[in-house]
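TA notes. Do not distribute before section.
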Amino acid sequence: MTTSGARALRATAALGLAALTTSLAACGAPATSAGGGGRTLTVLAAASLTDVFEQVAADFEADHPGVTVEQSFSASSTIVQQVNEGAPADVIALAGQSSLDPLAPELRLGPPVVFTTNTLELAVPADNPAGIGGTQDLTKDGIRLVVCQPEVPCGTAARTLFEHLGISPDVASFEPDVRATLSKVELGEADVGVVYRTDVAAAGDGVAGVEIPAADNVVSSYPVLAVSGSPLAQAFIDEVMSGRGQQRLADAGFVAP
C-alpha cells in the first residue's frame, strides 16, 4: 500500500470511530429539555380515576416537556399499604377520605386536598337480563350481586348504602376494586354491581346504569396529596385543581367538592 493510501485508510477509520463515539454518547445521554430534563413523576391513584387521570397526565406532560407521568391504578387501601411499605410515589389520589387514615404521618408531605366527589350507581349488563330496575331488586332471589371488598372505599360505600336502605343482600363475590366489580358485570358474570357513577359512564355501551335515589346514595370525597419532596408533585396537584383539570373530572361525571 502506498503512503497516501495508508493515510487515507487511517483518516477513514478515525472518522468512523468519531461517528460511533458520537452515536453512543447520544444513545446514553439523558433526555433534556427546557421544561423537565427527562424527569419522571409517579402517581398512584384510585381505580375509578383511571380514565380521567390519563387525560390529566397527558395535559401535564404537554405543559412540562421532558417530564413523564407514570401512573398505577388500584384500590385506595392497596395504594396506602404500598406507599407505607416503601413503594416509590410522588402523588397519591384516593377515593374516600378515610382511606388516608392508615398513611404514615411522615409520608404526608403536604396537606391532603379534596379535589372531587363521586356517588354510587348500579351497573347492569347492557341487556339487563335480570330486569334490575332499582335498589329494591337487590334482594330478589337468585340475583348475582357483586361489590368491592369491604376494606376498599367502594365496598365501604356499598355497605353504607345497604344500611341506608335497611337491607342485607346476598353478595355473589367481593372484588378487589371498582373496575374489577364493573368487569364482572360487563362479562355477564353478575346481574348487578355497585360501582361509582363515573365507572358506568366510562364503560359506555358495555353496561347500563340504574340510578340510586339521592336520599339513599353515598357521596365519596377524593383527596390528593404529595408523598415526596419532588417539585413536580405539587405542580401535578395544581393541574388537578386547575380549571382544566376540574373540567376533565366534570366531563367524566365527577362532581366538584
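Switch to the second chain here.
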Amino acid sequence: MGKKNFKDLYRRVKREHGTVTCEISVFSDKFNPLLRYAGVIIYSIDGKFEWENYVGGKAYGRRGRSFYIIIQCTDNWSDDYYKPVGQGTVHDYLLKNVVGIDSDQKRIACGGFAYLFQELRFSSIWLNGTDQTDAESDGDRYLSDPEKILVTYCWEEYKKHGVHHVFSIPFFIDELLLN
C-alpha cells in the first residue's frame, strides 16, 4: 500500500539530516474536529529533501524540507474538488495552492490523507497510487503502513500544537520506520 520504498526514503532523510523533523505548514488551517480536511506530506521535491520554492503557490520564495505537511479545511472549497472516489482532486488542488506543483508533474514525492467525519483517512488515488520522483507506488490508493504511522503521529501533533509547528520524530517511531 502506498509507497513501496517509504522506509528507504525515510532512511535517506535520516542519513542526510540526522534528526528527522516534520513541519506543519504555516499555510495549514486551524483544526476544528467538526470540519473536513485534506492533507499532504511532502517527502521530496525534484529528488531533494530540502528545496526552495520558486515555482508558485502560497509558499513561493520559501524554503522547505522533508517532512513538510500541509493540512487545509475543504469545507468551503468548490464542489468540483468532491467527485466520486478516485476522481476527486482535493490533494492536487492542495499541492498547487501551496507549492505550485501539479501532482502529475512527477517532480514531487508525497502522500495524501484526509480527515472526514471525525476520522483520519489515508486514501488518495492521485498521490498514493502513482509513482513519483524517487517514490515507487504499489498502485494502491492508501498510504503504506509506515506512512500511516508517521502521518498519524504528525496529525496528533497538529491537533495539539496547530500550524507552523516543527517537531522531531520520537525514538519509538523512528525505530519503527527504520526497521
